[in-house]
Amino acid sequence: MSAPTAAGRQAWAYLSRVVEAPTAALHALLAEHGAERAAALVRTRQVPPGLRRSTEARHHLDTAEADLARAGALGGRLVTPEDAEWPGWKLHPFATTVPAPRQVPVLPVALWVRGPARLDEVTDRAVSVVGTRDVSGYGEHVTAELCHDLAADGWTVVSGAAYGVDGAAHRAALTAGGPTVAVLGCGIDRAYPAGHAALLARIAEVGLVVSEHPPGTTAAGYRFLARNRLVAGLGDGVLVVEAGWRSGARSTARWARELARPAMAVPGPVTSLGSTGCHQMIRTGEAELVTTAAEVVEHVGRVGELAEVSTSPPRPLDGVDAALRPVLEALPRRGSASPQQISESSGVPLDAVRAALPELELDRHVVRTEDGWSLRRGAGA
Amino acid sequence: MSAPTAAGRQAWAYLSRVVEAPTAALHALLAEHGAERAAALVRTRQVPPGLRRSTEARHHLDTAEADLARAGALGGRLVTPEDAEWPGWKLHPFATTVPAPRQVPVLPVALWVRGPARLDEVTDRAVSVVGTRDVSGYGEHVTAELCHDLAADGWTVVSGAAYGVDGAAHRAALTAGGPTVAVLGCGIDRAYPAGHAALLARIAEVGLVVSEHPPGTTAAGYRFLARNRLVAGLGDGVLVVEAGWRSGARSTARWARELARPAMAVPGPVTSLGSTGCHQMIRTGEAELVTTAAEVVEHVGRVGELAEVSTSPPRPLDGVDAALRPVLEALPRRGSASPQQISESSGVPLDAVRAALPELELDRHVVRTEDGWSLRRGAGA
Fold it and tell me: Where in chain A is the domain with CATH 1.10.10.10?
């Protein structure tokens, strides 16, 4: 596939403006006619019945040239399915055919991006990290730690640039020197939320700001809900750090599952409202419990990337054969005991006690005394 | 089944002394000959080969009469499978046949108990609550809250009287005025740990202290491991509140699963070592995540006892039909917009916008103005 011509790119830009929410019917039209012809058909209202409603309100708005210029002035561009950097592999599970499978998100027409990173490369190994705007100190700390570790391990952090968990995720990735991708529900020229203008500018300098809407598109609730499918779509899995009962993060995790990608949630204190959504998701099987970046990688990573098995320090009795332990534990803390006494106390037959004691002596757990056997000092029985 | 005669009870007491760890072979002997004859056969070493080793060390120790007297002096008694208060239904899944199914715990010979409660009644609706001795402030708080709520709901709290989670569980149940059962790895006349002497005395006053070992038996590590199967066996499920990587609590939860009963774990901060075992159990599917007493009851309760579905307060847009939301959100925060402007901004066809606006007006979300339509003040769009 070769990059579109200038006219072709304008057709893609026009379609991304005209269609608020892409439909499988539009993708069918694109597949049949290509972008330029599809755009001409939409412009002249020569579309199949299934496309009339969704293209009616804006078919006359042809701001493609201005939109492309506006993006370019910001260091941005329109990435189309014909461009080399189109993340085709990542977006492969999205729906493009009629009838669209129920619940499966529909492929965006094209993606407006702003920043130096290549869209396909920066999302090649990526984790989407989302959560409540109303983050707790705990949630902020855990988000920062997990995202720092993911970034340091070479994973891109994808999020939605919202206050709370999203912002903490982007900041931690930037701090670790890793790339990060912010997917917006408004145009890439917009700073939403306004308080994250500096953060978005920084992301546009080193990572990528992404939107399916053309420049100038204002933020709206339903756009952020649709945006969530792209947050899920650009990551290898979705990690929810903190979420209340009702949370956009939960819908992003649901998109991940529809795309057959892992949804993960971080637990927290049951006394914290901020973790209720995460706990509920784990309870219902909507998400897997994870506690470290390594465990996240175990879910999203390629074959062979497994979390290390945690180990704990050995305990005093660890070196002792299970069969010998009752004998060792039957010895009094002070003084000595005879094999007979040890047998009665432990319930181990006398001959087995007699056999065990020299073994325990060899292992320096017990010592022979005048009255029988006693624990060796310093042996941690 | 009628209660055993005095001689019969002495036979049970003798066997509970002779056998450190009951085996399916012993249960087979009991089933074939009854307690008195089985005791006589053990005493005279006329046992099948499979029982020789386990009865050898103590077959000559006949302290049954003294043990029963000692228990009685403490307000205790020996509950045998022939007694009406034997919790046969609860202990039904335990192994009694040869060969014993691998991993299934073996039925205790009999149970020494101390306290006013009837063993079968007090364990009829019971949850076993266990966890680390090294409990955190969070773990102590959560244990207290969960056990208080369980006790207030009529559930008996079963635990092991250890420091940490166990102690907090017993105390919370007592505070709520509910019965609680402490299962020990030593005799019921022993206070182990010593620091819980007062707590154990209190439990013996209003609940029940239980052990499969006769009075005088000292505490030993392997006895506590074997005890864990009884903690699991006397509850309808096992709840682990806090547990490190290696924890007796985890083994108790494993016994619950072997008995086909729910194992549950409470999550906590991922930054706390005390919750690592719980998180690991949830991750591996060894335990279900629970956060409230109601969720515990959902797992252990009889049919029909379901946790209430938590609800959250309604949001401003909640009452708005999903199809109308884009129209509502396209209205400017200040000033007015024409249906045409709203159609272009939202991507909703003009006729649909024209149909939606009067509906939104009726629901008092928008008002008609001279210039078009605007948001109604106070309507939380």
Answer: 316-375
Angle between helices B6-18 and B64-73 (to 10 degrees): 100
How many angstroms away from the CA of B308 is the closest CA of chain A? 13
Quote the percentage of chain B above a pLDDT of 70.
93
Residue with tokens 């007006």: B361
Please give the DSSP secondary-structure letter assigned to residue A106. Answer: B
Residue extent(s) of CATH 3.40.50.450 domains in chain A: 63-94+102-300
Beta pairing partners, A240: A130, A265
Cis omega before residue B215 (within 30°)?
no
Between the two ends of chain B, the Cα-to-Cα distance in Å is 71
| pLDDT tens sequence across B266-297 | 999 999 999 999 999 999 999 999 999 999 99
Domain made up of B65-95+105-300: CATH architecture: 3-Layer(aba) Sandwich (3.40)
Chain B residues with beta carbon closer than 8 angstroms to that of A311? 245
For residue B192 the two structure tokens come to 């182990």
Type and span of the H or E element at A368? strand A366-369
Interface of B with A in 323-342 (CB under 8 A): 325-326, 329-330
pLDDT tens string B317-373:
656 777 788 888 888 888 889 998 888 888 888 888 888 888 888 878 888 888 888
Strands A156-159 and B373-375: unpaired
Is the Cβ pair B329, A53 closer than 8 Å?
no
Measured at the CA of B60, the angle between CA B57 and CA B63, to 5 degrees, comes to 110
Terminus-to-terminus CA distance in chain A, angstroms? Answer: 72
Round to whole Å and give the CA distance between B39 and B15. Answer: 6
What is the DSSP secondary structure assignment for residue B210, as one 8-state letter? E
Q: Max Cα separation, chain A?
A: 108
Give the span between the Cα atoms of B357 and B348, in whole angstroms.
12
- Using H for helix, E for strand and C for coil, what is the string for B69-111? HHHHHCCEEEECCCCCCCCHHHHCCCECCCCCCCCCCECCCCE
Number of A to B CB contacts under 8 A, please give it.
141
Cβ A57–B21 below 8 Å, yes or no?
no
Backbone angles phi, psi at B238, to 5 degrees: -115, 130
Residues of B in contact with A343 (CB under 8 A): 57-58
Compare CB distances from B271 to A58, A142, A221 and report the shortest one's residue. Answer: A142
Residues 247-286 of A with CB under 8 A from B: 266-271, 275-276, 279-280, 282-283
Q: Tell me the fold of B316-375.
A: Arc Repressor Mutant, subunit A (1.10.10)
CATH class of A63-94+102-300: alpha beta
Q: CA-CA distance, A326 to B329, in Å (whole number)? A: 73
Q: Return the pLDDT at A1.
A: 64
Residue ranges of chain B that CATH labels 3.40.50.450:
65-95+105-300
Q: List chain B residues with pLDDT less than 70.
A: 1, 100-101, 303-319, 378-381
| Nearest chain B residue (CA) to A265 | B283
Interface test with A, best of B42, B222, B225 (most A CBs within 10 A): B222
Chain A hits for B288, Cβ within 8 Å:
283
Cis peptide before A99 (omega within 30 of 0): yes
Q: CA neighbours within 13 Å on the CB side: how many for A242?
A: 31
Contact of A78 with chain B, judged by CB distance below 8 Å, is answered with: no
Pairing of strands A76-79, A111-114: antiparallel
Specify whether the CB–CB gap between A259 and A253 falls below 8 A. no
By the 10 Å C-beta count (0-12 exposed, 13-18 middle, 19+ buried), A369 is classed as: exposed
CA B286 to chain centre: 14
- pLDDT tens, position by position, A174-232: 999 999 999 999 999 999 999 999 999 999 999 999 999 999 999 998 899 899 999 99
